[in-house]
Amino acid sequence: MNSFSETEAIALIRLRHSQHQLNEMLKAKRFKIPIHLAFGHEAAAVGMDLTMQPEDVLCLSHRNGAYNLARSKSLKTVLTHYQLEERPNGMAQMASMNLAVDNTGIVYSSSILGNNLAVAAGIALNRKFLQRAGIVFVVMGDGAMEEGAFWETLIFARSHKLGLVVVVENNNCSMSSTIEERRYPIDLSLVCRGLSVIYQHTSGAALYDVKVALKAARAMASDGHPALVELEITTFNQHAGPTPGWADDPMRIVLEDGLLVGHDMKDPLFQLHEVLGAAEFNRLAEHIMKVNHVG
Ligand SMILES: Cc1ncc(C[n+]2csc(CCOP(=O)(O)OP(=O)(O)O)c2C)c(N)n1
What we know:
Elements: H1 6-27, H2 42-51, E1 57-60, H3 65-72, H4 75-82, E2 106-109, H5 115-130, E3 136-141, H6 148-159, E4 164-170, H7 179-182, H8 188-195, E5 198-203, H9 207-222, E6 227-232, H10 268-276, H11 278-292
Parallel strand pairs: 1-2, 1-3, 3-4, 4-6, 5-6
Helix pairs in contact: 1-11, 2-3, 2-9, 5-6, 10-11
The structure holds thiamine diphosphate.
């Protein structure tokens, strides 16, 4: 297992703790809107935050909260949108599924599956015409692969040699269906080979591996070779809303039980816990939870 810098450890713990607090607030019915948490996606979101350069931009899907938290480093800012608080200068609320927090490089989030791909490709084309530096990252799930926009975006990006990196968070789940339940399995390495799109594949729970894959994809995209990074991810929470979602829901996430939600390598925080050791993990967690606590 690879080591973690202190910055990485803090970022992972803060993001997990923010999601726990949101989950507890969802249980208490504190929001009027659905929120798609992403327990298990922390290494993907933190890896993205550490990979993006100032000139890069990011387009997200309905499950954008972890990325908005990782980039803004502020649960309070995200909460102003979720709580539909008034914003200065008459700016509109972004709520949850379309949330793109200001000054994070997140330029677009969409509740419409596949929509963010077409927008990302358009931004990348515009950047190419204007010869602007930086690349476009776009994040989607394995369910969104079933949208026509996914295939069109790959063909379009390859044809125009766009600076685009498509990140597929493959959690083998779309709403509540597995891939096997809804379609023939798709081998993305073969799809990419057929389209001559760069393909990277790794565990989305291992921060180091995520960073290596995203960095390599970014380098290729900067040279006009669009890339796709497939991250194998376990989502530990319900599709939307709190977990548990109902009285006898077998899924259980409770902040009082501690930060970990899985006790194997599928949980990015478990990986950190194993490397730091319980004592150091708990010491750091206690400090971060105090600073990151919102009422
Ligand atoms: C065009 C469109 N069709 C259907 C939906 C309803 N819908 C919302 S989320 C979702 C599942 C998405 O699965 P995936 O892309 O794997 O992302 P995940 O929720 O697993 O992160 C569906 C079908 C939608 N939002 N947009």
